[in-house]
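seq/struct pair 1
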Amino acid sequence: MSGLPLTWEFLAVPRAVPEVRRILRARFAGDDAGDLVLCVSELLSNVITHVGERTPVTLRVSATHTGRVRVSVSDPAPTVWPALREAGPEGTSGRGLQLVDAVAMRWGVEQAPCSKTVWCELRAPRSRAVLRPGGAGLLSGGGGAR
């Protein structure tokens, strides 16, 4: 997958989430990167909600040797551990990690003495198929026939 690895260090603030989504969509324009964008959004939002605003984070998006994409978010709170939880039908929060669990092939947490990293692995985004003008067939985002 071209354009990888990506590494950003920044403060986890609410306005960073849509900005990172915008950057990723631009970076992977033409690719079906919705699951990647969703997982990054959820992992960043979890830091803001459970560790705190203005927490320094490192976001990494890289390719694995198996052809997957690995997303990781590191923060300096090794004892604030993410956990899947049930959000009742009336609940307004608590579904972020459930979403990551549902779309990722696998996910986990790595703990270090002064930090932790929450990561997930996803299938690599595929080129979107687009209809040619006049509906005469499908072309991939790269211009070749599928």
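seq/struct pair 2
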Amino acid sequence: MSADLAVQTAIRARLVATSAVTALVPATSILDRNASPAPRPGIVLGESQVVDEGDSIDRRRERVFHTVHVWKTEPSREGVKLILAAIRDAIRAERLDLGPDYHCADWRVSSTRAMSDPDGQTSHGVLVVECLAVEVEG
């Protein structure tokens, strides 16, 4: 398994297991898929980028940047901001479990932003989870 897939799997597992998140977005609407339209309210695991940390000769340390998209039909961005805050709290609560192949050496929510969609009815939030994943030697 790749580091970005391990992080993606860990993020979704954390979100569906966190009652503060599922109180705002049903677990069935926390998705890893690329289709439109996204459910409203909904959380869609999005893009990822993997960067070699470049600080070790064995090249087992990768920084994963993973985006999480939030969608909600509402006249303001208040609901999206509440969902983003619940996601942030869920991610910060404890170290991500990356399974047997990777260890989560460091993690954080590095940015959040909330915006209005051009359709005038939808709010969209984007949150970036940054994770330093270290490959476990096997």
